[in-house]
Amino acid sequence: MGRVRWADLTHAYGSAEDVPGRLSRVGWGDTRTAVLALGDLGLWLGELAVFDATAAAVPFLWDLAVAEAVTVRPGVIELLASILHHANPPHLEVQFAAHRAVLDGERTAQALTRDGDPAVRTAALGLLAAIDGHACATCRAAADSGRAP
């Protein structure tokens, strides 16, 4: 996370400099702390729209989704699915990058459908359905043209 210039990125409420702290709380916090941090990340990165910080955070969300010590893995997986449902029309390249980062984790989502935790398996099946059904105009246009917007 230290290689990402978070202060130069934005989320729904401004500077993304606080995103690494929330990601860490999801990964290392007790359940209550992780739930609160994941709620913040959801609001900031994927429940309203997607942002450049969303694209930067997705690889870390994938890491959290597979880390058995993370107590809120189903919520992390649901956030990844939520990102695919949101846009950023003024910044189509940002939207494409965020969606692509989620779509690129399809193999990980498939592996999570075989996880020992039934809640993780259920969330992963939902994420795979979102991946399989993803057809936003921005990603479709990029696929048709063979390049990003």
What is the strand and helix layout of this fold?
Layout: E1 10-11, E2 14-15, H1 19-28, H2 31-45, H3 52-66, H4 73-84, H5 92-103, H6 106-112, H7 118-132, H8 137-145
Antiparallel strand pairs: 1-2
Task: Give a brief outline of the structure.
The protein has 149 residues and is an all-alpha fold.
Strand order of the largest sheet: 1-2
Please tell me how large the radius of gyration is: 15 Å
DSSP strand tally: 2
Name the helicity range.
55-70%
Topology pattern, helix = H, strand = E: EEHHHHHHHH
Kindly report the average pLDDT value.
Answer: 93
The count of domains is: 1
Low-confidence stretches: none
Shape designation: globular
- Tell me the β content: under 5%
Structural class: mainly alpha
Biggest pleated-sheet summary: 2 strands, antiparallel
Please work out how many helical segments DSSP would assign.
Answer: 8
Q: Give the terminus-to-terminus CA distance.
A: 26 Å
Question: What does this protein structure show overall?
Answer:
It is a single chain. This protein has 149 residues and is an all-alpha fold. The chain has one domain. 64% of the residues lie in helices and 3% in strands. It has helices at 19-28, 31-45, 52-66, 73-84, 92-103, 106-112, 118-132, 137-145, and strands at 10-11, 14-15. A hairpin with a 2-residue loop joins strand 1 (10-11) and strand 2 (14-15). Helix 4 packs across helix 5 (92-103). The longest helix is centred in the N-terminal third of the chain and has 15 residues, at 31-45. The mean pLDDT is 93.
